[in-house]
Write a structure and sequence with these properties.
Blueprint lengths: L12 H13 L27 E10 L4 E11 L6 E7 L18 H4 L8 E9 L2 E2 L1 E5 L5 E10 L4 E11 L7 E3 L4 E4 L4 E2 L2 E2 L2 E2 L16 E10 L3 E4 L2 E8 L2 E11 L3 E5 L3 E7 L2 E7 L3 H21 L7 E7 L5 E4 L2 E5 L8 H13 L8 E2 L6 H19 L1 H22 L16 H23 L1 H14 L4 E2 L1 H12 L4 H8 L2
Parallel strand pairs: 1-14, 20-21, 21-23, 24-25
Antiparallel strand pairs: 1-2, 2-8, 3-7, 3-11, 4-5, 4-8, 6-7, 9-10, 10-18, 12-13, 14-17, 15-18, 16-17, 19-20, 22-23
Length: 504
């Protein structure tokens, strides 16, 4: 198991076992977008302006029923250069309302729904704009898009207040939105404004492969009321835990985050450590050794990536054991890790997955991108950063070992079983299954960054990465931003080199 760890956090455990077995016996036996555009194409504002919306959210959680009532106020700012006559919001929970639209591949459904299919949803009770009842409608697959018509156009730089009341039902599901007896995953669980960029409004559905999310940084204040026996943790700095009768209300301050995510459980244990001024906490319910191993890996990752790329800006980072059927999932200031990796014998895989998810704090949380059209821009760089973590913590020999077994061997085995090109640069909707997506974006994309680093040398490569991080901090980057940083650091245009991998 040691040499094939970290195959990809979105793979099911079933696929992970297939890959491990194939590597162990060294045989090649694997048998193995919709974008809505409304309005004119316009450039985004410059990096220095950073106009942000603000969300004020209250959830009242019924842990037994796996439901919660929500109220939220969005102070929405038009950060574009043209007036907006409407605002679009994603309603991700509605994709869980039926088996046909649930964001899982057919091979994953048994593990995602261990007790059989269970629906989830978000029901809008009311919406008002500026204190008056709003004109809105639900659109798209599973009514996963909410179109909010504004009473008058919102001028560039202007703000409008939108108030929501809604009810959310969690499915009995081991995904990032759902819950079981062990944990409730409250992720992508609220109305979040769609991104308006040079292509207009981004209204992609909830695809099964990858992370089909794309959002702008905003400021959040979140209050979650739940039974007193439960602990809630996730994005942001916990500023309060106020008890009243049988209920406790957790308050989180979350400035400068792309979205929020929380996990609730009635049996969490914790272990914490402060590194580089960041309070890192491991929330776990498995073995104490597993909880400590997750903490150690996270702390080492924070120190490594701070040194390599730039400082982690948030006061806290939470590593949360969760009942997930896949390895892990990243959110700003919080990462979810599957509970199976906390068992004895999984220490190496646990370390790899934790390091990968923490790297996403740099490449996704702080430097954002369109994860739907350009998933490689965060996933490939995050997977390569995971290898750099091993170099920083253990040295050059371990770095090369991880690259050889996690990247080269996997690519060789997959190429024998399914020969042909693996284009790194496709949108997630273009990949037939999660295995091909993982091999192309995670593995082939990591090979691309490995070769780029080797040819550029340490000084130019890390100078480019730090400049890219600084220039695009809290913004959404495109590949041209990466190309510009690489060229500025080296005096050479690397776009052709990268495009060769992106195009196959």
């Amino acid at each position: 198991m040691k040499r094939l760890k970290g195959i990809g956090e979105k793979l099911t455990l079933r696929v992970l076992l297939i890959i491990v077995f194939a590597a162990a016996v060294l045989v090649a036996a694997w048998m193995l977008v919709a974008r809505g555009t409304f309005g004119p194409s316009q450039p985004r504002r410059s990096a220095g302006e950073r106009l942000k919306s603000a969300y004020d959210i209250e959830w009242m959680l019924d842990a037994q029923k796996k439901t919660f009532d929500g109220r939220q106020t969005v102070d929405y700012v038009n950060a574009e250069t043209v007036p907006l006559s409407e605002i679009y919001f994603h309603l991700y929970p509605n994709y869980f309302s039926s088996e046909e639209t649930a964001p899982f591949e057919s091979s994953e459904r048994t593990t995602a729904y261990p007790n059989g299919f269970s629906p989830g949803s978000i029901s809008i009770k009311s919406i008002s704009v500026g204190g008056k009842a709003a004109d809105y409608r639900l659109e798209g697959d599973a009514q996963g898009i909410l179109r909010l018509a504004l009473p008058q156009p919102l001028e560039s730089g202007a703000r409008v207040t939108v108030d929501f009341a809604y009810a959310v039902r969690l499915p009995d599901c081991t995904g990032r939105f759902g819950g079981t007896e062990d944990t409730l995953q409250l992720c992508n669980a609220y109305p979040i404004a769609a991104v308006y960029d040079e292509d207009g409004w981004n209204l992609d559905p909830y695809y099964a492969a990858g992370d089909p999310f794309y959002s702008d940084v905003a400021d959040y204040t979140v209050r979650i009321a739940c039974p007193k026996a439960y602990t809630v943790t996730g994005t942001g700095n916990q500023t309060g835990a106020d008890a009243a009768g049988d209920t406790v209300t957790y308050t989180f301050a979350c400035p400068d985050v792309r979205d929020i995510a929380y996990v609730a459980a009635d049996h969490f244990k914790t272990v914490s450590k402060t590194v580089d001024g960041v309070a890192v906490t491991s929330f776990y319910y498995g073995t104490d050794a597993g909880g400590q191993n997750a903490l150690d890996a996270a702390c080492s990752a924070v120190q490594s990536f701070n040194a390599l790329f730039g400082a982690y800006p948030y006061p806290t980072l939470n590593i949360i054991q969760s009942d997930l059927y896949y390895g892990g999932m990243e959110y700003p200031g919080a990462v979810l890790i599957t509970d199976t990796l906390y068992e004895m014998g999984s220490e190496d895989i646990l370390e790899y997955v934790v390091a990968h998810e923490v790297a996403h704090q740099w490449w996704y949380a702080m430097v954002g991108n369109d994860e739907i059209d350009d998933p490689w821009l965060d996933e490939s760089l995050t997977e390569y950063s995971t290898l750099l973590y091993y170099k920083e913590r253990y040295g050059e020999a371990r770095f090369k070992e991880e690259y050889r077994y996690n990247i080269e061997l996997n690519l060789a085995l997959y190429s024998l079983a399914a020969p042909g090109t693996m284009r790194v640069g496709r949108p997630i909707s273009a990949y037939d299954d999660s295995l091909l997506y993982t091999m192309a974006v995670y593995k082939r994309g990591t090979q691309m960054f490995y070769e780029l680093h080797r040819q550029m040398g340490d000084q130019a490569f890390f100078s480019a990465m730090r400049a890219y991080f600084d220039d695009m901090f809290l913004l959404n980057a495109g590949k041209e931003d990466l190309y510009a940083a690489l060229e500025a650091a080296s005096g050479r245009d690397w776009s052709g080199f990268i495009e060769g991998y992106l195009g196959g």
